[in-house]
Amino acid sequence: MKTKQIATFFVVAAALAACSDTSSIAAPNAVAGGALRDAAATPTGLVVTSPSIGSVVATWPDAPDAKSYNVKLDGFGVHHVAESAVVDGFGTTSWSGIPAGTYSVCIKVEGVGSPFGAACPTVTVLGAPAPLIAQAITFDPIANHTYGDTPFAVSATGGGSGNPVTFTASGNCALDESNTLTIASAGSCTVTANQDGNDTYAAAPSVSQTFTINPATLTVSLNDVRRTYGEANPACGYTVSGTVFGETVSGGCSWDATTTSAVSGSTYPSVNASFSCVAADTTACSMGNYAFVTPVAHLTVDAYSCVGFTQPVSLMPSTQSPQKVGSNIPTKFTCVDDNGLPILNATATFTAQKGSPTGAVVSSGAFRLADATIGQYIYNWNTTGVVSSGTYYYLSAALNDGVTHINGYIVTK
To answer: Quick one: how far is CA 368 from the chain centroid?
Structure first.
């Protein structure tokens, strides 16, 4: 054993003797002249930040005589930063996509054999926040409305954020701070519901409802009328119902009948009805706020209301008041209209027939207006040469209304 140890000593001694000029041997971490490079290997003043989610930025002052740098983020490799990238005396590098956590960052001058410096600042990186929870609005349905409807409230139920549901309105409507909706005019209205989010819930998608605002029904009721044959058509009488703000409506119509339209028992309809708001209220009507409804009315044309004949003509064949052959027999009747006023424009034809309404015609002529104050008409029948004694004669008056017939009898002697 001693022999082997002695041999080893001599080998080492021989090697040292062969390298006796130690001035040319440089320590591994030394610069020329024997100075250690550790000071240049680890620049001081390294600042590390995380300015946004998943990012890291390192900044340091430029070290003397450094040509480039190596900067290491734990677990994410080393960045090489050339001296040419140093701006205004500061170098910088950055990382992105870094998961949330706390990391250390180290730096050294590239090409220097020493390891990264021990003073490595740490940085905390924030990760992306958890996705916000969706929320929804349940908007109570809004039915169609009509111009003139009273104001009404709109309501909706929001989602989990607990924030209030707010509303906006557009169109022919207005919304106040209490979420009460007022109809402004006919047309349409759109109400939109919104709800803000918070740190946990996303804002709810807006929900809109559009509803129709129908025109109010403004009913013009025409009055049925009647008149007597031959008279001028009366004016259209009417009443109006359904105005929202008491607007005044005027207008009129005409009748599908003339003064000589027949008395047929049927009626004549109103035509050419036209109504509108008067000048002071035309704005409300012109906006389409009203739908005019004008039902058809009817005109009834009545026959004359006549009374006759007067004496000596009797209603039935009679032996009383016999008339002498050759005498003038006055045949009289009176006519009034529906209002009791005398008819002044009637025409009537006199006819005398022997024995009955089917007997031979012995005389005819035309009545004339005898008394305008009572609407009395007369025909003086001259019996000379046309009648025989002791005979009945049927007398009649056919009026121009096409309906009225007046009749009676006389007996001659």
So the answer is: 69
Convert the pLDDT of each residue in 301-357 to its tens digit.
999 999 999 989 998 888 778 999 999 999 999 999 999 999 999 999 999 999 999
Q: Which domains can be identified in the chain, with CATH numbers?
A: 41-125 (2.60.40.10), 138-214 (2.60.40.10), 217-302 (3.10.430), 305-411 (2.60.40.1930)
Distances (CA, A) of 355 to 143, 318, 362: 80, 12, 10
Residue type, 276: S
Q: Could you give the C-alpha distances from 122 to 40, 54, 73, 119, in angstroms and in order?
A: 21, 15, 10, 10
Give pTM, 2 decimals: 0.57
- Looking at residue 362, what DSSP letter applies? E
pLDDT in tens, 370-392: 999 999 999 999 999 999 999 99
Bond before 245 cis per omega within 30 degrees? no
* 3-class secondary structure, 40: helix
Q: How far apart are CA 325 and CA 311, in angstroms?
A: 17
The answer to whether 46 and 58 are in contact (CB under 8 A) is yes
Nearest-angstrom CA–CA distance, 62 and 367: 138
SS3 344: coil
Cβ atoms of 168 and 119 closer than 8 Å: no
Write out the DSSP string of 67-123: -EEEEEETTS-EEEEEGGG-BTTEEEEEE-SPPSEEEEEEEEETT--SPPPS---EE
Closest CA to 381 of 324, 303, 296, 335: 324
The DSSP bridge partners found for residue 70 are 80, 108
For residue 21, which amino acid is it? D
Provide the residue count of the chain: 413
DSSP state of 31: -
Quick check: bond before 99 cis, omega within 30? no
Counting beta carbons within 10 angstroms of the beta carbon of residue 359, is it exposed (0 to 12), middle (13 to 18) or buried (19 or more)?
middle
